[in-house]
TrEMBL record:
SUPFAM superfamilies to which the protein is assigned, alphabetical: Cytochrome P450 (SSF48264)
Protein name: Cytochrome P450
Organism: Endozoicomonas montiporae
Organism taxonomic ancestry: Bacteria, Pseudomonadati, Pseudomonadota, Gammaproteobacteria, Oceanospirillales
InterPro entries given in the database record: Cyt_P450, Cyt_P450_B, Cyt_P450_CS, Cyt_P450_sf
UniProt family annotation: Belongs to the cytochrome P450 family.
One term of GO molecular function: monooxygenase activity
One protein family per Pfam: p450
Keywords: Heme, Iron, Metal-binding, Monooxygenase, Oxidoreductase
Amino acid sequence: MTQEAQVLSSLKDAPIEQVFRPNSLDYSVNPVPQCLALAERGRLVWFPPWQAWIMTRMDDIMDCWKREYLSSDLYDWQYAPEVPPKEEWSNFETAMIGHSLLADPTHHRLIRKIASPAFSRNVVDEIQRRIEPDIKKLIANLKDRESFDFIEEIAQHIPFISITRMVGVPEQYWEEMKPVIMKFTEAWNPTLTPERREAARQASSRAIDILKLVMAERRDQPLENDFLSVLLEAEKKHEDFEEWDVITLILALIGAGADTTLVGQQWTAYSLLKHKDQIDTALSSLKAFRNAFSEIMRWSCKSKMGFARYAPEDMELLGQQVKKGQMILLMPHLKDRDPDYYEDPDTFNVERVFDPDVLFGYGPRFCIGASLAKSQLYLTMTELFKQFPNLELDGEPERSLEDHNAVTFKKLMLKTNNNR
Ligand code: HEM
């Protein structure tokens, strides 16, 4: 038993907030004992610091994903921001409330179905084709460096490159789009000041104006296998799918795709460099990498929170009395190093078999950007190791406590060793 596991075991009867401390340095260095200790507390655990329930077991989470008996709509939360009267709605509120992709399961399923051609193989390949030169350039610019910070020089640029290239936003608007893409989720983050939330909301409203301009141009001149053109074609065909649905969908992609990509990039570079003997296998093909990425995310166990749901009514759930509006966080990552779930959970093995593979969720809300995310990561990693075959970690990176959702690094310094 590790030292921390011993300490946690001695806290068996202590309040859960003394045992599970996802914003602590201990957690960021080794989250595993705390995750296991939390899961041991039961299937549904009340966590006072977040005023939320935590769903800990995979069977229960799968059932919730499948049957969707809880709400995914932020506005069903007891602490949701107040909804202003409709006549006062800004662009932001029109997109997030009036056309919410999340609100009603029937509408959600319809939008997913209508929008699915925009995530087809041909469209994803075309997005990749557009992103590739940007990524190659980003990495080639570092070729004379002895060392660099992977986060600053590469990872933090990727979400912006992907979204702007995916939508086809002309470069003249990039400066205005940039803060929105990286800070969009600040608009409803309850832990920030009202001023900061308002600034993010205003920047988002301006970004929506830009999106409308780009959409108008693309309606006049559609492109082949182009993400936005495919969505605009769907808009023409389906009366249930209009301009605001397209905008909401793009904002959802920004909200769900930017941070996850940033975090995924750092942990992929770190994990592969920690297990250099597995790099060739992991990058041998896109198919091999898809599996390797699931292992990277499992091994890193880097999540701090989970996926939020809200109780639609007072209900008995997994033996607990849950009140209408309370948040329930699904935490699939608690299983990631659990020996009852995975054989040899502390071993990193990019060929591990995942059945089922739930990294990207399951059921009606399965990640819409999954194939895009994996292709982008594959592209970055193959290019990185092609240009820097002798790459290594420049020491153990210090963890950052800033991100409330995931364990990240302050910097990820890499040595290129290109003259070796
Ligand atoms: C890099 C790693 C990524 C991981 C591990 C990941 C994981 C997930 C998971 C687990 C869900 C389900 C959440 C839930 O049940 O509440 C989800 C949903 C979603 N993801 Fe991802 N994601 C990633 C990247 C992306 C990217 C790059 C995009 C966009 C381009 C994206 C867009 C979305 C959207 C829009 C949803 C909501 C889908 C819906 O409600 O129908 N994700 N993601």
